[in-house]
From TrEMBL:
Designated name of the protein: Uncharacterized protein
GO biological process, one term: triglyceride biosynthetic process
Organism of derivation: Capsicum baccatum
Primary localisation category: membrane
Domain of life: Eukaryota
Entry keyword Endoplasmic reticulum: yes
Transmembrane segments: 160-188
Amino acid sequence: MAGKTQISLQPMKEKLVHTLLKHPRFTSLMVVDEENLTDMKWVQTKVDLDQHIIIPEVDESQLESPDKFVEDYVYNLSKTSLDRTKPLWDIHFLNVKTRNAECVGVFRIHHSLGDGTSLISLLLACTRQTADEHKLPTIPTKKRRPTPSGYSTKKGPCRLLGAFCLFIRMLVNTVVDVFMFIITIAFLKDTKTPISVVPGSESTKARRMVHRIISLDDLKFVKNAMNVTINDVALGLTQAGLSKYLNRRYAVGGKDKGATERNNNLPKGIRLRSCLIFNLRSSAGIEDLADMMEKGSKGKRGWGNWFGFVLLPFKIALRDNPFDYVKEAKATADRKKKSFEALITLTMAQIIIKFLGIKVATELSLRGFSNATICFSNLVGPQEEIGFCGYPLSYFAPSAYGQPNALMISMQSYIDKMIIVVSVDENAIPDPQQLLDDFEDSLNLIKNAVIERGLVKNMK
């Protein structure tokens, strides 16, 4: 996360004691259960904040590029692991003025403390609106789409028939999706592409993490014009950007860069998928988490990982019509919504853990991730400026390292911004900034197509 002002250690420590440290996972150690040596359990411990908050001394006058310094600092952090003799988190504050911030805070949190969505919700519960320090952030909620004309008026047999057809469709989709998931774990791998893990670097966990801030209003512009969702547009620009990047990588050696990019160098039939993690636990909202930390209670709802898995295919191809990227993404997303894939894979994982143990379950899940090409996530953030422990935030950019994939793409909205973060294995993707350029160019391509075709007139 990036702050608008520099950080002072003592005020930050005082704030964390009354916020983050009220959550039991951030004051606990993960130890072996003495009654069942194959299981782990959480044990409360005393937290010394001086061991968790790091503010290195940096001479900015000696930095050629503050942004590159921050990028390298995070990269070097990804080469190390968290100390298991203390709670599995730390935070590094770099009082360095970058292009978009006066200070950068790097939160490092082990995945055992929660899934990405839960952890983001927890951190947001530690924030308040800068306009009113008593108000929690406002997170946009999904609006129910209007019922198709005529459907709500159907009664009796017609409505029952529609429900039955939807059930059959979801059943068929679920069978197909679960079958594809099983054979992916067993043997079905994605097509080998320039962004796949390089042979011999599978054990490399270090990741280069870079980000790009684009306009959320541009995504909304396309969303309204095409009558789709923000997620559809995000998936569409991702497909377009990946296609453009791979087209260039397949043409390595071409002397004329312009001609190379105009030519279609992509092989046909590329299979490229993302393995998505869904936490199906009914997780606490920001209000519940804030109340839990304020009162020091355990909260009304469960916490932790209750994972289901979904394989999301990306169609890699160059399209003459930029709208096709979004239309294809929407079709894929709508198809996945009509499936119980996440619920069934969760049930399968629970059965495997019960009868074969956590190690076997972990090995199988890693095979699923390894046989897919990328990880992808898109998270919704606050609509107004927020402050963390009293310090206003310019943006925040979640990501991860340790995954077996060479590429992880994370998108996070904040006020009128969309932050795209890529976490890459440099052995496979040595130019992550170029990939971000392709994502940004793809959004502009789609937006300009909307303007040229006059679809802006249809916006509401």
